[in-house]
Design brief:
The chain is of the alpha/beta class. Helices cover about 20% and strands about 35% of the residues. Helix 5 links the parallel strand 7 and strand 8. The chain binds S-adenosylmethionine (SAM). The site of S-adenosylmethionine has 23 residues, from strand 3, helix 2 and strand 5.
Length: about 180
């Protein structure tokens, strides 16, 4: 179950513990990721709405369309409220992996899901959903140029960050992946 607080999105786990899914401190990272995937405009897809921080920044870029895929019911409630004044947004409800067949082709892909058992399939579907020279980035949870998708040619922009103590990322450097799908 997800719970929103003022600055965080938290998942309450079945063992009674909780885990932070998203936190406001990530805002500068989300902005840099959004600017990278929207660099050349066009049609953008985002996997995971969360707190809408990246989505709101994507909307400020010079883009054509913005597709958002989200599978959590409480996040979807906020997403449907947020989208009301945003005519270029399409919502795909459900697990992104079950939505690949209804996706179009995109110029930018912003991948930021959480506890996603299908994340490992992302490299396999990229060719189906990417236009030539599509920009891709994803959340990198390690403070190094770690490449969970083994996408050769990925570059990293190193961002200085200052997170408050949290349950998932407590480092001062964030290695933002930048990959171009040829
Ligand atoms: C870390 S948050 C995204 C944060 C977002 N970038 C922001 O700026 O607020 C992860 C989001 O991915 C969603 N999610 C997790 N697994 C998913 C999946 N398989 N398909 C679609 N959405 C998923 C979660 O419900 C959550 O809203």
């Amino acid at each position: 179950m997800y719970k929103f607080t003022e600055k965080t999105l938290i998942e309450l786990l079945s063992n009674g513990l909780y885990e932070e899914v998203m936190h406001e401190w990530e805002t500068p990272i989300m902005h840099s990721m959004a600017e990278w995937v929207c660099k050349d405009g066009g049609d953008i897809i985002e996997f995971g709405f969360g707190m809408g921080i990246s989505a709101t920044h994507i909307q400020k870029q010079n883009i054509n369309s913005h597709t958002i895929c989200e599978n959590n019911a409480s996040v979807l409630v906020n997403l449907y409220e947020w989208v009301k004044d945003k005519p270029n947004v399409t919502i795909l409800e459900g697990d992104w992996y079950d939505n690949v067949n209804v996706m179009s082709k995109y110029d930018g892909i912003f991948f930021d899901t959480h506890r996603d058992k299908n994340a490992k399939h992302l490299p396999l579907v990229l060719k189906d959903i990417a236009k030539p020279n599509c920009k891709l980035t994803w959340w990198n949870n390690l403070p190094e140029p770690y490449n969970e998708f083994s996408l050769d040619g990925t570059e990293y922009e190193v961002l200085d960050v200052n997170p408050p103590k949290n349950t998932y990322f407590n480092h001062k450097k964030y290695y933002m992946p930048k990959y171009i799908i040829k």
